[in-house]
């Protein structure tokens, strides 16, 4: 078979003809879809007279909308739809709302580009060749992204009585936000949970003034007020404010993040002794079982009380909450001994928002972070050992009964 190639002017003409064909198809598809929508509402096709007809057509009107293939002028049907009281109302398409100037596909493209890490300027530059600058104005991008706020607000106040999480991870991280004409670094308090099937779920995001106990207590009390049941275990870092706030759920097991504690120990340990201290610490965290871990903990405390009392005091501060994960099935140890599942989410947040030098408003920061998860830009996976969760839940329920 002879190979057909398109190069130079011929190739350009081919691409232009192909694009023109696609543009025509897009227009035809939209017009045909809305025509079908109207036919279903009326109960009859064009020029068709049937019993039970619910209204009548009265011509066509032109509308210009922006589609994924650029600006299109459409000829859309007009009609009057019968109502139950003998009156009629003007036909308004649900597929293409009356005042829409862009198809939903374009709105989703703009939103998706924004969530992927592009700021408003980059979005307009990226989509201008396809859509034209007039249709991707800064205000257009802002309006589309602004719709997220209402969604986030509803999510932030949702009823949690029907949601159940066996594990909660609590941690904070910082974002730059413009407040009172200055760019400041403010903490975001994040809570993620693990459902019974092992899937990680974003539970709460809140921008706070600090990581003080009062702020974290507010987060946990809010979760309780909205009906969230106590989990099997909470995995937390060693922040003093968060430790105090845990009193809101006094009977829940607490696992102190082993990774955070290692960083604390290294801060208290002389540089030349850090490698030795780390080896001793790993004997606690990587023991074969809880009994061996307790022996390693006691040995660590006895040794470093003499070598470096500050290190000993640091590990005593966490105490046996470093070993809580040993009470769970071995397959779950890796997932439960650190806040890494939430740390990974926080790291992805930072990566996706690095194009934003700072957020102009406080709510813009947490709204974007929520949207990254809600719209699938950041995917939440199952934790290690998730198959063991159902048995743990069943055992808890039997004990509760």
Structure, explained:
- The protein has 401 residues and is an alpha/beta fold.
- The protein is built from 14 helices and 8 strands.
- The strands form 2 sheets. It has a 5-stranded mixed sheet with strand order 6-5-4-7-8, sandwiched between helices. Strands 1-2-3 form a 3-stranded antiparallel sheet.
- A hairpin with a 2-residue loop joins strand 4 and strand 5 (182-194).
- Helix 4 crosses helix 13.
- The protein is elongated.
- Residues 1-7 have low confidence and may be disordered.
Topology:
Layout: H1 8-42, E1 55-67, E2 70-82, E3 88-90, H2 104-115, H3 120-131, H4 138-156, E4 167-179, E5 182-194, E6 200-207, H5 213-225, E7 233-236, H6 240-245, E8 253-256, H7 258-268, H8 274-285, H9 290-307, H10 309-318, H11 333-336, H12 340-352, H13 362-374, H14 389-400
Parallel strand pairs: 4-7, 7-8
Antiparallel strand pairs: 1-2, 2-3, 4-5, 5-6
Helix pairs in contact: 4-13, 7-8, 7-10, 8-9, 9-10
Total helical elements: 14
Distance between the termini: 76 Å
The number of distinct β-strands equals 8
Which overall shape is indicated by the principal axes computed on the Cα atoms?
elongated
How many whole angstroms does the radius of gyration measure?
Answer: 29 Å
What are the segments in which pLDDT stays under 50 over at least 5 consecutive residues? 1-7
Percent strand? 15-25%
Q: Which secondary-structure class do the elements indicate?
A: alpha/beta
Helix and strand pattern: HEEEHHHEEEHEHEHHHHHHHH
- Rounded average pLDDT: 78
User: What topology, given as strand order, has the largest sheet?
Assistant: 6-5-4-7-8
Q: What helical percentage do the residues reach?
A: 40-55%
Biggest sheet layout:
5 strands, mixed
């Amino acid at each position: 078979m002879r190979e057909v190639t398109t190069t130079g002017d011929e190739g350009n003409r081919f691409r232009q003809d192909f694009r023109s064909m696609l543009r025509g198809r897009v227009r035809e598809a939209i017009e045909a879809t809305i025509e079908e929508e109207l036919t279903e509402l009326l109960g009859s096709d064009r020029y068709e007279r049937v019993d039970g007809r619910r209204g009548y057509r009265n011509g066509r009107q032109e509308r210009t909308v922006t589609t994924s293939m650029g600006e299109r002028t459409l000829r859309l049907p007009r009609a009057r739809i019968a109502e139950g009281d003998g009156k009629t109302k003007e036909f308004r398409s649900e597929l293409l709302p009356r005042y829409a100037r862009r198809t939903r596909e374009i709105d989703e493209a703009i939103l998706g580009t924004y969530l992927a890490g592009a700021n408003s300027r980059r979005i307009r530059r990226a989509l201008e060749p396809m859509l034209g600058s007039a249709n991707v104005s800064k205000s257009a991008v802002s309006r589309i992204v602004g719709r997220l706020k209402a969604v986030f607000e509803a999510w932030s106040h949702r009823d949690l009585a029907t949601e159940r999480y066996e594990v909660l991870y609590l941690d904070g991280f910082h974002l730059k936000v413009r407040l009172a004409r200055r760019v400041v670094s403010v903490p975001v308090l994040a809570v993620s949970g693990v459902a019974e099937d092992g899937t990680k779920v974003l539970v709460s995001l809140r921008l706070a003034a600090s990581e003080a106990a009062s702020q974290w207590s507010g987060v946990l009390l809010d979760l309780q007020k909205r009906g969230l049941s106590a989990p099997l275990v909470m995995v937390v870092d060693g922040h003093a404010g968060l430790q105090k706030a845990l009193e809101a759920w006094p009977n829940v097991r607490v696992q102190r993040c082993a990774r955070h504690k290692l960083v604390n120990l290294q801060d208290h340990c002389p540089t030349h002794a850090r490698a030795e201290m780390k080896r001793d610490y790993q004997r606690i965290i990587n023991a074969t079982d809880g009994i061996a871990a307790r022996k390693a903990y006691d040995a660590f405390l006895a040794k470093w009380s003499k070598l470096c009392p500050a290190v000993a005091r640091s590990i005593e501060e966490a105490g046996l909450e470093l070993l809580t994960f040993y009470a769970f099935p071995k397959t779950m140890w890796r997932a439960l001994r650190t806040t890494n599942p939430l740390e990974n989410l926080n790291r992805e947040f930072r990566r996706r928002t690095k194009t934003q030098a700072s957020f102009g408003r406080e709510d813009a920061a947490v709204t974007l972070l929520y949207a990254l998860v809600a719209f699938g830009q950041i995917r939440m996976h199952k934790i290690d050992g998730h198959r063991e969760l159902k048995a743990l839940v069943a055992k808890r329920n039997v004990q509760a009964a």
